[in-house]
Specification:
The protein has helices spanning 26-41, 128-141, 152-169, and strands spanning 46-48, 58-61, 73-83, 87-94, 97-107, 109-115, 121-127. The chain is an alpha+beta fold. The strands form 2 sheets. It has a 5-stranded antiparallel β-sheet. The relative contact order is 0.18. The structure holds zinc ion. Zinc ion is lined by residues 94-96, 136, 140.
């Protein structure tokens, strides 16, 4: 079990476009387990590989509520192949933008193709929270954050706040 450090806004790594995996092997499965451990520890319901600094098209999701059995999903090279016309609104947050939440509109249903942790091709028709979560995480693979879906005014405010936090956390250099 390995919990990896999370990449936080405004780290430019979050804007990288991730690359597809060429194969799914034991190293991929070990990495998926690390992603799940990191997500459960945070805690969060979804995590993309880039959020722990690996620009790979891979994400994990577990929507089980507290007290329910774990329901981990691993999506490798996921692609949205269809989305419904109906829109749903969820208040979203992101492990890379801690303690900030905003309502985001997205298609209510999506069809996603992907490889599972055994490398088998799968297709999922998702709705509700799973559809929103998949779209949020697939955005990460393209360097897109949920704050890109809110107004520029709100986005500028949150980016400014995190830039300030990052400056305050930077090590002070003492020149004596
Ligand atoms: Zn996120």
């Amino acid at each position: 079990m390995t919990i990896k450090p999370l990449i936080i806004l405004p780290d430019p790594v979050l804007r990288q476009v991730s690359k597809p995996l060429e194969r799914v092997d034991d190293a991929t499965r070990k990495f998926a387990d690390d992603m799940l451990d990191t997500m459960y520890d945070a805690p969060g319901i979804g995590l993309a590989a880039i959020q722990i600094g690996e620009p790979l098209r891979m994400l994990v999701i577990d929507l089980a509520k507290e007290g329910e059995d774990k329901a981990p999903h691993v999506f490798i090279n996921p692609q949205i192949v269809a989305s419904g016309d109906d829109i749903s609104v969820y208040e979203e947050g992101c492990l890379s933008i801690p303690d900030y939440y905003a309502e985001v509109e997205r298609p209510e249903t999506v069809t996603v193709t992907y490889l599972d942790r055994d490398g088998k091709a799968q297709e999922m028709v998702a709705d509700g929270l799973m559809a929103t979560c998949l779209q949020h995480e697939i955005d990460h693979l393209n360097g897109v954050l949920f704050i890109d879906h809110i107004s520029k005014l709100k986005r500028d405010m949150v980016v400014r706040k995190f830039k300030k936090l990052a400056r305050e956390k930077a090590p002070q250099r003492l020149v004596g």
